[in-house]
Structures are given as C-alpha cells and as structure tokens.
Amino acid sequence: xxxxxxxxxxxxxxxxxxxxxxxxxxxxxxxxxxxxxxxxxxxxxxxxxxxxxxxxxxxxxxxxxxxxxxxxxxxxxxxxxxxxxxxxxxxxxxxxxxxxxxxxxxxxxxxxxxxxxxxxxxxxxxxxxxxxxxxxxxxxxxxxxxxxxxxxxxxxxxxxxxxxxxxxxxxxxxxxxxxxxxxxxxxxxxxxxxxxxxxxxxxxxxxxxxxxxxxxxxxxxxxxxxxxxxxxxxxxxxxxxxxxxxxxxxxxxxxxxxxxxxxxxxxxxxx
Amino acid sequence: xxxxxxxxxxxxxxxxxxxxxxxxxxxxxxxxxxxxxxxxxxxxxxxxxxxxxxxxxxxxxxxxxxxxxxxxxxxxxxxxxxxxxxxxxxxxxxxxxxxxxxxxxxxxxxxxxxxxxxxxxxxxxxxxxxxxxxxxxxxxxxxxxxxxxxxxxxxxxxxxxxxxxxxxxxxxxxxxxxxxxxxxxxxxxxxxxxxxxxxxxxxxxxxxxxxxxxxxxxxxxxxxxxxxxxxxxxxxxxxxxxxxx
Lengths: 271, 245
Ligand SMILES: Nc1ncnc2c1ncn2[C@@H]1O[C@H](COP(=O)(O)OP(=O)(O)OP(=O)(O)O)[C@@H](O)[C@H]1O
Ligand SMILES: [Mg+2]
What we know:
Chain A is mainly α. Helices cover about 80% and strands about 0% of the residues of chain A. Chain B is of the alpha/beta class.
C-alpha cells in the first residue's frame, strides 16, 4: 500500500482525517484511564479512605524507587532479573527452535518423543524447585534453568505445529522441482512459519518473565522477584508494588522490542 | 511421426493407509509423443493426480513401468506462489532448487515473464496480482527451467469463467510457441477439446484408459477459434457420453 498524499480525493482525505481522530481518541483514553487510576489511588490513600500501608500509593512507589536508586541497588536488581530473563529467553527460543526442527526432520523421533513432550508441557515447572536448588544451588544458574525450562516446551510445541502445518501442495510443488529436505526446509518450511515464529516470541516473552520471577521466588538473593518476596515477608508493601511496577515496565519494553522485530521481519511477507 | 517422450506400460499404483488400501491406478498404458498436447479427463477421485505424480516420478509404480525422456514441470490447481517472494523470485525458485541459478538462466526466466506480460509485475508480491496474472506467473515459473514435459493438474479450475477463458487462451499460446509436450488434467470437457491434440478418457477408480481420441481441428490450435468450429459440439457430445458411461 502506498501512502500518496498528493493527488487523492476529498473522500480519501476525510477518511484519513477520521482515522487520525480515532487514533487520537484511543490514545487519550488509554492515557486517561491510567491517570484516573493513579489519581484515585493517590487520592484515596492521602484522604485516608484506604490504608497506604496495605495498598501503597503512586507517590510512595516513586519514593521507594528513588531510595533504591540512591542506595545504588536499583540497577543491580533490575539488571539481575533482566539478564536472567533475556538470556533464558534467548536460550529457550533458540533451543526450542532447533529441537522443533529436529523433530520435524524425523517423524520417527517425533513419534517417539511426543508423550514426553506432552507430559513435560503439562508438568507445573515449579514442582521441580527443590531439585533445581539441589542441582544448581541458589544463584543465577538455577534461575536461568527455570526460565529456560518454562519457555522451552512452549517454543518446541509452537514451532513444531507450525512446521508440520506447511502447505501440502507447496511441498508437492517443491518436490516436483526435485527439492531435497534441506531445500524444502530453507525455501518453504522456515519462511512460511515466520508468522508463527513471531507469535512464539510474543508468548515466550511472557514465559521468560514467569520463569525468571518464579525462579527468584524459590532461590535468589537478588532481582525484582527477590525484592517482591522479601518485601512481602517484611510487610514492606511499597517495595512489592514498586518492584511489580518495574516488572510491568520491563515486560512491556521487551514485548515492544518483539513487535519492532516483527515489523522488520514481516515487512516483505505481506499476503 | 514424432518420437515418444513418455510411456506408461501396465502401471498399477496402490495407496496404503491404516484403514486399508486403495488401488488408484491399474493396468494403465499409454504414451505421449514429443510436442503433443494430451488432455486427460475422468470422473473425480478416479486417480488423475496420482497419474501425474507417477509421471513426474514422485510416486513409484507398484507394478508396471513409467519411462520418460526429458525433464518435467509441474503446475497445480492453485498458483502456490510463495507470498514472501516477489514474482521475480517466485519465478526463480525452480532455478534455485535445481542449482541452475546462473545469470543466463535468470535472464531467460525474466525474459519469458516479460514476453508474456508480467514485466511490470516482477517486483510485486503475489498478493498484488489478480488470479489470472498469478496463474500466468505460475506457468512462467514452471517454464523457467525449460522443462520438456509440462504436467498440468487442473491449472484453471480455481479461476472464474471469464478469467479462465482468457488464461486458457494465453497459456495455450505460450505452450504452443515454446513447443512443449503437455499432459493436462481437467474436469472440463470443453477445455480439453479446445486445447488438446489428443484426449484420454479415464474410467472410474482404479483409473484405466477407457477411450482415446485424436482430435482433428484442421490444424487450428487456438482455443476460442476451436470453440466456434462445427465439430466442437460433436466432440463434446461424444466425450460427455463416455465420461458418464
Ligand atoms: N496420499 C493418499 N493416501 C491414501 N489414499 C489416497 C492418497 N491420495 C489419493 N488417495 C486416493 O486415491 C484415489 C485417487 O486419488 P487422486 O487424487 O489421484 O484422484 P483425482 O482423480 O486426482 O481426484 P480429483 O478429481 O478429486 O482431483 C482417491 O480415492 C483418493 O482417495
Ligand atoms: Mg486431483
């Protein structure tokens, strides 16, 4: 679609104008809702309708973050969690993609491993907490392992079903050209599964955060998940809320990066 | 008489699934000569697609033998252009697969596209083309490696009637002027009559050759002209009866 502003009809100009108005409306409502929530929250605690000790408040959250910053631990905690999440995410995605490719390649291996994957998928990974502590100790490796574990199976299943769903007739077409398995993979299976790859990334952003925070709940001595658990234990709800808020921002940022990646990758694959 | 380029002798093919076996093709014998345009019609599900897969060597006969001299180009009901590739890159696909992606071959393919009206669409994506244009691009893709034998599996049936007549016209012209041998499968009796030199009528499953006709249109190969000729409706009646026998 080309965006030719020059010689277009009145009607089209009107259409563009309406579209812009709608966009402005949507964004002002989005921001408005956030402001309303924050405003009511702040007001209700300062007027004493709600106990700020139990529900915290925007200003207290800001102050908590500020004091973490002046103590010099803010970026240490953020960095720890972010590192665990990102590295876990990358490993889970790459490994999951590779395993899915291998399973696509060999039907026998796929059939053999199917029940294992189904069971691993259904298993709540947190059940492995004690084992992980014993095997990996209580540091970052344990949390990384948890993060990878949570994302890996999802990545495998998501990609495998996309690989298998490759259009039968396009496969036939390539085979009729004499394509071997590697060519089928590189020319058809991988490019046609690109949209699924993107949606898998989006799902796995969520999975990675679940994994890393869950991991920190069980074992860690640093990171945002640790701050939340610690804050809960000593009844510092401001700390819990502040860490949760930071998590929201980071998760949104990571999701946004995936969306950016999508824009770059899918630019050409319009269909 | 031209030389034989493809021969089926006593071919049988059986599909095996858990629920049982299906004999799709049995005791099938026929041959195709160089530059001949052969149309195959038959009841639906009788084994026509199986026949083409056997011809292309994608399936190996359970009994009998398929022999051919020459390379194949396969074209399916839908264009199956890859939406993430431009038309030019789609047309180049068989060259890449066959490792013939040299400048000369690429140029040949691009020239074919230009010659047959796709020049201005080379950098477009398939979604930007009409159904007829896309099917034409699919034909150029099939021709890109300069195959000797074209195997066409109901290549027009996904198009609406108007487009279909036009594309049939184009395709016929392209194929005749490139001097290709064609094995065309179709449901459409009048399409078969308007295009082919010879028509094979298949029986119900398992498919065998039930009837065979050499069409004589006094050398006229243009589909629309053929449709206006006197013996067209005569052939239609004969084939209609045989197909529904
Ligand atoms: N992969 C397969 N496994 C099992 N049976 C199959 C397979 N492919 C085709 N068949 C069966 O073989 C028979 C012939 O199939 P084929 O696709 O060759 O028929 P066709 O004449 O091309 O059908 P249509 O008119 O629908 O295009 C059908 O009964 C079909 O169900
Ligand atoms: Mg068929």
